[in-house]
Amino acid sequence: MSIHEVAIAPLSGDSDATIAPRPNMATLVVNVASKCGLTPQYEGLERLQEQFGSRGFTVLGIPCNQFAGQEPGTDAEIAEFCSTTYGVSFPLTQKVDVNGPQRHPLYAELVDVPDAEGYTGDIRWNFEKFLIAPSGEVVARFDPRTEPEDERVVSAIESNLPG
């Protein structure tokens, strides 16, 4: 199965709609949370969306409540928080599990990808990042503490923009 075929319901709650990393587009997949010490990373994620969005790139925010209950809100509360607090314009999905027996199939595809230090396996915390190339290949994994606008992230995005 291609990673482009692994769909997640959008935060909007439209049960007939799905979103997934799209072919011919670079996608930064990030498990997000509203009540985490790393939540201010939303600002950097939004700036990446603004900087590269017109060039075939998107952030895909995936709320998860598995880390100290730091994403407890409903879909509506999450959407309101992201919109009013950080002006998020990139797509957000419904909450999913990223670890454990109910791990979403997208994360089942992602967790075996090593980061720069060679770590593979379970998601460590909120705001772990994966870059998916337009071809569907997972080309980079970044530690949760790595800021979205870190040179390594920006360079990886620039190297994987389509065209």
Arrangement of strands in the largest sheet = 2-1-3-4
On the 0 to 100 scale, the average pLDDT is 93
CATH topology: Glutaredoxin
Q: Please tell me how large the radius of gyration is.
A: 14 Å
Strand pairing plus helix content: what structural class? Answer: alpha+beta
- Helical content stands at 10-25%
CATH superfamily: Glutaredoxin
Which CATH first-tier class would you pick? Alpha Beta
Note the overall shape. globular
CATH architecture type: 3-Layer(aba) Sandwich
What's the quick description here?
The protein has 4 helices and 4 strands, in the order βαβααββα. It is α+β, with helices and mostly antiparallel strands and 163 residues long.
List its traits.
163 residues, alpha+beta, Glutaredoxin, 4 strands
Structure description:
The protein has 163 residues and is α+β, with helices and mostly antiparallel strands. It has a single domain (9-153), classed as Glutaredoxin, CATH 3.40.30.10. The chain is 24% helix and 14% strand. Strand 3 (129-132) and strand 4 (138-142) form a beta hairpin. The mean pLDDT is 93. Keywords: Oxidoreductase, Peroxidase. Belongs to the glutathione peroxidase family. GO terms for molecular function: peroxidase activity. Pfam families: GSHPx.
